[in-house]
């Protein structure tokens, strides 16, 4: 059983206003360093990759440069693989899995496909191990025109010139026990709605785009990751986090309707990973490797099925 750890803010049944958001913000405490853990790792890539700052997030007194990494032998006539991590800052393996891919595996794709990697979309949330940004907005429901989330708007601006050249996009996420104990209760409180308890799957799974599911592609990624960590089984009702399981370890969402990061390009092959770092059957290194393996499997499939 998951017990809510979210402290009450505001009045039950009433959506938050600015006062409640301010109260929530004052409770968020920096727990780790984006500069040391992420920017430091990106700095070590300069010798082998082109690194560019594509934006800056300002939450006074803090400011966070946003970085994208791409292969040095970029070819204007070559298709692009897009990798994104840390849209939800608390989902650690999404960030470090993207960096692990760059450090250990990206070189093998030289001359075969362009790589564009944004390892940490939400640095303020990364430091506070949170799902939302400093305005209590979920960036992964904000990838749409006129986005209220600066993190989402910056990534969309980065990707816009390449939308039609991206052939594969893999967005790296986690599902954690804190989703049920903290973030879903917080969402209900913020929106003035009752909290409805759910379940947390034990294992890795994928969320495909219901508008372009590409089931053979999804299964290729699942099969590759299954050699690294365990795949989440369906709940007794045939669902994972309340969504019908359409194939082993795969559910579907409508990316663009929900404003998800996976919908920002016109890639034929797109998927969202979900690692379960709280499982007693998985280590942090295993979670990072699962993410990097998913990236490799996605790109390999796209190259084999142009």
Summarize the structure.
The protein has helices at about 20-25, 35-45, 90-105, 125-130, 150-160, 175-190, 215-225, 255-260, 285-305; strands spanning about 50-60, 60-70, 80-85, 115-120, 165-175, 205-210, 240, 245, 250-255, 270-275. By secondary structure, the chain is of the alpha/beta class.
Verbal overview:
This protein is of the alpha/beta class. The protein has 9 helices and 10 strands. The protein has one domain: Aminopeptidase (3-Layer(aba) Sandwich), CATH 3.40.630. The strands form 2 sheets. An 8-stranded mixed β-sheet has the order 1-2-4-3-5-10-6-9, with helices on both faces. The longest helix is centred in the last third of the chain and has 21 residues, at 284-304. The model has no long low-confidence stretch (mean pLDDT 96).
Question: What's the SSE blueprint?
Answer:
Elements: H1 18-26, H2 34-43, E1 49-59, E2 62-71, E3 80-85, H3 92-104, E4 114-118, H4 123-128, H5 150-159, E5 166-174, H6 177-191, E6 205-209, H7 215-225, E7 239-240, E8 243-244, E9 250-253, H8 255-258, E10 269-275, H9 284-304
Parallel strand pairs: 3-4, 3-5, 5-10, 6-9
Antiparallel strand pairs: 1-2, 2-4, 6-10, 7-8
Helix pairs in contact: 3-9, 7-9
GO biological process, one term: proteolysis
InterPro entries: Peptidase_M14
Region (Disordered): 1-28
């Amino acid at each position: 059983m998951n017990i809510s750890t979210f402290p009450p803010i505001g009045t039950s049944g009433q959506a938050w206003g600015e006062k409640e958001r301010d109260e929530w913000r004052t409770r968020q405490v920096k727990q780790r360093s984006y500069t040391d853990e992420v920017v430091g790792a990106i700095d070590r890539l300069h010798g082998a990759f082109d690194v560019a700052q594509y934006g800056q997030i300002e939450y006074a007194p803090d400011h966070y440069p946003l970085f994208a990494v791409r292969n040095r032998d970029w070819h204007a006539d070559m298709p692009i693989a897009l990798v994104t991590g840390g849209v939800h800052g608390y989902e650690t393996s999404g960030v470090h899995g993207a960096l692990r891919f760059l450090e250990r595996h990206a070189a093998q794709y030289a001359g075969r496909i362009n790589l564009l990697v944004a390892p940490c979309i939400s640095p303020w949330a990364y430091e506070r191990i949170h799902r939302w940004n400093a305005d209590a907005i979920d960036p992964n429901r904000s990838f749409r025109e006129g986005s209220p989330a600066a993190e989402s708007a910056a990534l969309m601006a980065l990707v816009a010139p390449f939308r039609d050249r991206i052939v594969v996009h893999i967005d790296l996420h986690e599902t954690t026990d804190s989703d049920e104990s903290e973030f879903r209760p917080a969402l209900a409180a913020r929106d003035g709605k009752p909290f409805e308890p759910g379940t947390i799957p034990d294992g890795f799974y994928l969320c495909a785009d219901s508008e372009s599911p590409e089931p053979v592609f999804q299964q290729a990624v699942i099969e590759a990751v299954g050699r690294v960590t365990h795949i989440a089984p369906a709940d007794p009702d045939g669902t994972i986090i309340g969504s019908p399981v359409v194939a082993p370890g795969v559910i579907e969402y409508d990316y663009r309707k929900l404003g998800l990061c996976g919908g920002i390009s016109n890639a034929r092959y797109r998927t969202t990973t979900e690692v379960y770092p709280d499982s007693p059957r998985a280590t942090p290194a295993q979670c990072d490797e699962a993410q990097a393996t998913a990236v490799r499997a996605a790109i390999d499939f796209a190259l084999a099925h142009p």
